[in-house]
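Write out this protein's structure.
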Amino acid sequence: MAAVSDEYMISVLRPFVAATGPVLSGLRDADPFRLGRLAQRRSLELEGPAQEEPPAKGRIGKIGRTVRRLRGRVLDRLATSRLPGTPRWAVMSHDERDQWWVGRVGRFTSAIAAVPGIGGALARRLPVSDILGLSAQGLVVCAIAGEHGVTGRDEQVRLLASVLFERDLRPAGDAHGDQVERDAADLTGDLHGDHSGDSRLRSLARAVWRMGRSLFALHDELGRRPQGRRFWRAVANLPVVGAFGAYKAERSGLKRAARAAAAWVGREHG
């Protein structure tokens, strides 16, 4: 018999799914150095008519020409980089985008884990690695669903339940009810406000932490979520290298969750 009822699991997963929209948008657009915009601008320049560079005059002119050429080479590399909004992103396969999400979410949650006190006093009483690992897996699963055209909230609830908890849920009722929206707003917090770069990243980090903590309410089911390789889980228990082992184990588990999500979408919507 399931330790957690279907109804309770649905009540936890629906706000999580509702909150993934702004959080994934923040992770997608998090570009503190504006590389995506620079890449997009460069790609437009390359599509336009070639502009002949005036001849360099004197040492200052030669230095200026060298700087412009170096800048052009850097922007050319950016124009072919795998960043949302770039031409390269537009032609990437589903699998390539899935792997991009694994990398982006995994690196971000690893960075959060390194920030002392991100969860306040509660974080000292709860396993930070498990909470952030849960949040990362849930976010990657929903991101992959969106990339494959599965955008309905209850479809994503079913996907999350299958991948993270090996449960076959059949949600009924309103996935956009007032209580769902209030709970989702509590998870995202002040993420919708106007922020500078650093402030927005902190708001994003807090939202990711709260989302993982919400899934931790399903603690009786957590043993079923995709686990990392047994080797790295063993290393995680060792002194000194334990932190590195835990990181590798979570990344391995995140990749397994991504593969399971893509497989589920293929079965249900292929």
